[in-house]
Amino acid sequence: MKMDRRQLPLNALRAFEAAAISCHLGRAAEQLGVTQGAVSQQIRSLETSLGQELFVRKHKRLYLSPAGQRLLDAVSEGLDRMTQGIIQLDADSQSMAGELVLCSTPSITNNLLMSVIGRFNRTYPEVSIRLSQIVPNARVLPDEFDVCVCFGLPDDTSHLETRRLHTTRLYPVASPSLTLHRPAIEDGAELLNYPLLHDRAKGWTHWFNQFANGEVKGLEANIFYSDNYQSLMAARLGQGVALAEYYEVAADLTSGQLMLLHNKGIEMGIDSYLVLPKKDRQTLRGRVFADFIEQHLEDLASHFPPDKA
């Protein structure tokens, strides 16, 4: 099929992307501020124009067809590039070349920032990126940095600009291989039948207190790791169930490497923050990268977290 940019049905492509991300027409309609019927009509029109079935309907649920998955990848990349181009228009007239110093915790860096770094690097290859590691709830930050993503605020923020990114909410996640030949989990207490992966946040105690009437007896296994990054790696390898912040495992959930075992998350009372130096010490590189982070989280929030859906 031949199509040039003058023929691109942009509204239909936006409707398709919203529906494809969640495989749910109602959520797509809510996100776009239109009716479910309008979304359905846009998708039918797009399928007719392309001569391809983009969704498969099974057991009253929507699934992407192979053609739909390929189109989603292309549409998401294209819309992301347009969005970032609009956000960063002011950067075109100034030099971005130089070093960008980032600091964050191992878990946030590996499970969230890597995606942002890749996208930023493709857009601004002239920027050299250097990473610095901090611990969760770090009381003091490094002396020199352009952008820091903190789990909890440092003690002294008088010389810093801070923006709250999101409130930490942890969900049970595991590799699909762990649940093979086991019934679907309908009650939180049923997670006690699986190996539980712990880290220093001690989130399982809070989770069971809220969603399983405090039951913590009869555990099949406990494996203790020193931080969340290690417990998530173990979950990906099928060792057990970890508690994870949705924003850090969104890519795993989309690809199917991990799955949600329960759609309720427990708030830990600690927020994640974007931290920059005061405006007179900020670099253009730092401001642009901060915009990339916020746009990335906005994209993820458009279809989750699950207990808000």
UniProtKB/TrEMBL annotation:
PROSITE patterns in alphabetical order: HTH_LYSR
Recorded superkingdom: Bacteria
Q: Which UniProt keywords apply?
A: DNA-binding, Transcription, Transcription regulation
Q: Name one Pfam family in it.
A: HTH_1
Q: Where is the HTH lysR-type domain?
A: 8-65
Check the record and name the InterPro entries matching this protein.
LysR-type_TF_proteobact-type, LysR_HTH_N, LysR_subst-bd, WH-like_DNA-bd_sf, WH_DNA-bd_sf
Q: Which GO terms describe its biological process?
A: DNA-templated transcription
Entry's Gene Ontology molecular function annotations: DNA-binding transcription factor activity; sequence-specific DNA binding
Q: Which family does it belong to?
A: Belongs to the LysR transcriptional regulatory family.
**What is the protein named?**
LysR family transcriptional regulator
Organism for this UniProt entry: Oceanospirillum sediminis
